Amino acid sequence: MNHVRATAEKVTVERDTVSMYFANAALRHLTPVARERVLGELDIPESWLGVPHARMQAATFSALWLAVARELDDEFFGLGRRAMKVGSFALLCQAVLHCENLERAIKRMLRGFSVFLDDLQLSLTQEGDEARVHLRNGIADEADRRFADETLLVLIHGLMCWLAGRRIELLRVDFAHARPAHVAEYTAMFSKNLSFDAAHTVMGFDAQLLVAPVVQNSQGLQRFLQTAPQSVVLKYKNEDSWTARVRRRLRACQTAESLGDWPRFEAMAQEMGQPPTTFRRRLEAEGSRYQGIKDQLRNEWAIERLSTSTMSLDEMAAHLGFHDASAFHRAFSRWNGVQPGEYRRRRLAASEAVMAARSP
Asked: What are the residue boundaries of the HTH araC/xylS-type domain, all occurrences included (predicted)?
């Protein structure tokens, strides 16, 4: 199999945005009239879909998903022989809501998807310490088959995260298709451990999670469905988690003169009422580290300024708490796979292309 690591990719993947590849794939089975209607409804210029490196906000992609589903009466983008009619996902969520643990919920979920989607065979197995969701895809068209695997993995993983009340880390994903041009998206959506050209698509996660209880209820389901599919695309975010609490605390002082003045780890642990070792374990249990949370917020701040302001890179470096601009360059390149100046040039070029497309 063809293996790839996330660190080898040089494509920028922004938080809470979606590659234009997914928008194009979602629109593929609409008639020209329906496509024009959907793009007009969402104020998306046709030419924007072909802009290199252009990205779509997750909220816009979610609205696009819903609009395409309404046009086709199919929540699976017209990929299968039989439509997954609008309302099917909500019924499936209701069917798994009262399972006592994640294992039973996943098995019922996979059976449900198999009922709705004739071209896919889904199963759950356990190999040692790893639980595995298997997708065997019989869709004939190669592009449709790949997008069906991607879409189904997003749905399954997103629903798993919501049911468990936490973001579930995927240990690896083996894809049945060849390594795509948009492979960097996979590291943000699924896992850093990817392989391609497998016999069939497999998603692996910690088998200990199979006994995790389903923590949601009917009221939570209503809120979840009101924000779907965005809540599924972005996976589950527990706003009461330690990670979320740290993010809120740090964001509260983002207007300070320098983000380098953020509290040290020990001070943050004290604020949270936890001994440092306990606080570290709690963050690690959620797949987080304090330094990682700070870096993510610094990266988000830098991306916003590069996209919307003329602030110099030296000024950004100082505000972010770097000793010099070169340290900022190295960090931004490590986070995003591209230098900050090049990122700004790409965003400017994409914005100019969109403006040109909207001009009469």
From this structure: 244-346
